[in-house]
Amino acid sequence: TGRPIYFSLCGWFYWYAEVGFSLGNSWRIAPDVNDYPSLLFSIYINSHLANYSKPGGWNDPDMLVGTNKESAVYLTPEQSRTQFSLWSIMAAPLLIGANMLNMSDFDLETYTNSEVIAVDQDPLGIQGTIIWENCPQIPLEDLISHPNPKNFSSILPCQQIWVKNLTNNFYAISMVNYDSKTVTVECDSKCLSIIGIQNPFVRDLWNHKDLGVVSPFKFEVGPSGSSVLFRVNEANNYLNNHLSLSPI
């Protein structure tokens, strides 16, 4: 027909990332996400594959799972939001796997958050990476030899900070908590220096609220796969772009 198409490959294995760009526009890199352990497994797998993702071709860690407990598979509301946030940080396809005819208001709000979708679809097309974590380091070779992703729940109580470069010197930053209790997660001065920011001007993308300059850059994050997601840039850049002097 001569029409452009989006060609999505499904092979369920990480090695599609190595050849995916020559075959299609996205490629599955892990087994299905059916529950929290398999969600963690896909996150861990894709954290190793950022170098294979670029504009025109992206790693696909599977479809989005809703929160309807009557569905065959579901996540908690917090875990579902974390999946949407991290998929956006990863520049992953946002394909809804929930029942479109029986979607809760919560899921509809999640999947229509234009600010988070903008992170996913940022023109740079860069897959975000982990810049800080206290989680166990699991090599890709060990992950792919794991006998059953459904048993991948032995992650120690730990946290991660993900960052994605956006256009116009903005960054998307997500703090994720895999512990069973609420913890405070901080991106300290060393963490901020890796990003390239000294004075972060912060916008909360789930609450649609500017938080201003946040120092120290730390937040309470709920338990069991909860997260927070921010768009951040250098405060001086923000002020220069949004404020102007009135004539005397």
- Unreliable stretches (pLDDT < 50, length at least 5) are 243-248
Instruction: Please provide the ordered H/E string of secondary-structure elements.
Output: EHEHEHHHEHEEEHEEEEH
Order of strands side by side in the largest beta sheet? 4-5-6-11-8-9
Based on CA atoms alone, the radius of gyration comes out at 18 Å
Distance separating the two termini: 61 Å
Report on the structure:
By secondary structure, the chain is an alpha+beta fold. It has eight helices and eleven strands. Helix 1 links the parallel strand 1 and strand 2. A six-stranded antiparallel beta sheet has the order 4-5-6-11-8-9, sandwiched between helices. The C terminus is likely disordered. The chain is globular. Helix 3 packs parallel to helix 4 and helix 3 crosses helix 5.
Please outline the helices and strands:
Layout: E1 8-9, H1 16-19, E2 26-28, H2 36-47, E3 58-60, H3 77-89, H4 105-111, H5 114-120, E4 129-133, H6 140-144, E5 159-165, E6 171-177, E7 183-186, H7 189-195, E8 200-204, E9 209-213, E10 218-221, E11 226-234, H8 235-242
Helix pairs in contact: 3-4, 3-5
Question: Notable features of this structure?
Answer:
22% strand, 248 residues, three-stranded parallel β-sheet, alpha+beta
Explain briefly what this protein structure is.
The protein is an alpha+beta fold and 248 residues long. Helix content is 25%, strand content 22%. The chain is globular and about 50 Å long.
